[in-house]
């Protein structure tokens, strides 16, 4: 016997679930849209907070720059102070007041430079003066040596100025003695200077010259024999003996060669 088909009479829930799924999907989309919108756009508080953060960052950046500049200024000031202390120590070491102003110090340095130039010029002048003194001493020594050589050089007795009518008799005057030379110079006789006035030999000599016609006593005066000459001349004048004088330029030996030739 055939089974009778059974017809299901259950109600289908598909339309409700579809609607519910759509609503849920719609809500999810809205929530997602709201969430995404919240992420993309900041709130007013967030904007203000961000601006504050930016202002703080700018302030901190500026403060850091100011701090660096202040530290640099402090470093420069410290270096200046250290330099000033060093200069003060140097000034103290030089015997100067470390509290001198920069202007006073510049003036003092200028004066010190001028003083240094003056000292250098003075040292140069002193050196030149020393060199000049040395040159003067050298020249003086040369002149003294020449004079000494000249004084020691032989002295030539020249009868040219006497004249042919006179017969000369030579008397050499020194500080220590009178020396009576023969007219030819081949022999002589000495009288001590302290015995000139009372010397019999000298008076005898003067009488002999006075007795000779045109006899002439010529006093040859050495540089140191002036006093002896005055005494000898005084005695010769007392005996009325014609006399003349001839200063000698030095202490050299007398050369009578011209006298000897003139008597021949």
Q: What portion of the residues fall into strands of 2 or more residues?
A: 5-15%
Structural class: alpha/beta
Outline the low-pLDDT stretches.
1-9
Helicity, as a percent range: 55-70%
- Cα(first) to Cα(last) distance is 224 Å
CATH architecture of the largest domain: 2-Layer Sandwich
Protein model, in words:
With 264 residues, the protein is α/β, with parallel strands linked by helices. The protein has three domains: 19-100; 101-152; 155-263, Nucleotidyltransferase, domain 5, CATH 3.30.420. Helix content is 61%, strand content 12%. It has helices spanning 14-40, 44-93, 102-152, 200-211, 226-238, 257-263, and strands spanning 155-156, 167-173, 177-181, 188-192, 215-221, 243-247, 254-255. The strands form two sheets. The chain has a five-stranded mixed β-sheet, covered by helices on one side. Strands 1-7 form a two-stranded parallel ribbon. Strand 2 and strand 3 form a beta hairpin. It is rod-shaped and about 200 Å long. It starts with 13 loop residues before the first helix and ends with a helix. Residues 1-9 have low confidence and may be disordered.
